[in-house]
Each structure stands twice: as structure tokens, then as C-alpha cells.
């Protein structure tokens, strides 16, 4: 048993979109979780989200619950999460590890700023996570940069 399982931080529900009932007999039998969209094939969508004039940036429990809700709303499977509360400024750094990748956050309450990374593969839509986060953070301005990671030629 790994250390995360001992802490109760590992999901007991495996992702249905990444399970095969048959053992792999060769590389040809493996399911490809790359995404095909707009004539492009890639590993997943990586959003860099900057939240400016944001609130509630110093409560690791609320941030954990919100990012977990955001992950589920986007269609992802949560494996575990971990958050750290810094002093004296109260910033929070943390990650929700997903079967489909991750959501991470770093907050600067003294600047009313948070930097969020959302990387998801498969059928997940990371854009659906943003409105969930906005409910907690009430950002005055949101900047989103999207990257398609692992692009391959079709």
C-alpha cells in the first residue's frame, strides 16, 4: 500500500474511461487517450488561468473542495489532492491529481492573485472547471491561455 492510500488520499473509484477488462497483449491493443479536435491530434488541453482581483485565496479547505468540484464538473476522475497553507501571508499551493492529469493552484492573497494550471486528457473539458472556480474566487479579471500538449501529425 502506498503512502497516499494510507492517508486515505487515493480514489477508490477508478476512471471508467481508462479501464480495459482484457490484459494488454501488445501495444496495438492499448486504447489511445489522445484527443482529436479541429483536425489536430494531441495529448490534452492545458489551461493556464490567471485570476486577478480574486477573493478567498487563503483557505486551503475551501480551495480543495472547489478544485475537486471543478475537476468532476470537467469530467475528470480525482485520485487525490494535497494543499499547503503558507504563513504569514496566507497563500495556498496545492494540486488535485487526476486520472486525466491535474489541477494545480498557487495563491497570493496579498496581491489578490491566483495562478491555476488545468491539464486534462481524454474526453474531459477543462474549460468547464473555470465557472466552478469563479464562484469561490469572484475574480474581477480572468486570463486564460490554452495550449494543446503533445501535438502529433495526423
TrEMBL record:
The record marks 100-101 as: Cleavage (non-hydrolytic). The active site is at 101 (schiff-base intermediate with substrate), 106 (proton acceptor), 121 (proton donor). Pathway: Amine and polyamine biosynthesis; S-adenosylmethioninamine biosynthesis; S-adenosylmethioninamine from S-adenosyl-L-methionine: step 1/1. Its EC number is 4.1.1.50. It is an enzyme of class 4 (lyase). Heterotetramer of two alpha and two beta chains arranged as a dimer of alpha/beta heterodimers. This is S-adenosylmethionine decarboxylase proenzyme. It comes from Novacetimonas maltaceti. The gene is speH.
